[in-house]
Amino acid sequence: MSYPQSLNSKVVELTPLALHKLSQHTPKFILKPILQVLLNQLFKQQIKAGDLDFIKNKWVRILVTDMDFSFDISMAKNATKPQLAVDFKPKKTDLIFSSHSDYLLLLALNKIDPDTLFFQRKLGIQGDTELGLHIKNLLASLDLTQQLPLQISKLINRLADSVYDKNVT
Q: Could you give phi then psi for residue 61, rounded to 5 degrees?
């Protein structure tokens, strides 16, 4: 099924605004378990393989600059099985990974190289340099759509293609 380009551009334009409103008006105690379940599902294979063990005892803040929204992730301590933990105010943040929602989407879907964004100053990495390199390399090796149901994957890829066309080409 093909959608008109004007619909794609409207979705690209309105999605960050809708997510911003949702994140600003939803209590953190509701957002926290939703984000935790979503991230643990998306990174299920990497967690199982130990690919995220390098963030044990570290907190990484993901800052979505255009939405004025951030959250922190780490590997959960004292969990019966390895899993990501989400927090909104950890005692210490070791790394801040910041960008516009468009670029974070392109990174998550491996549609753009993190080095390209970093050197164009569209991806901010502040704090623990070694941790930042691990995160950047992990992102460069991922395509999170493989973790999603087929229809959602197709929809997100279509959205990402429109974002790419708007920002990169």
A: -90, 130
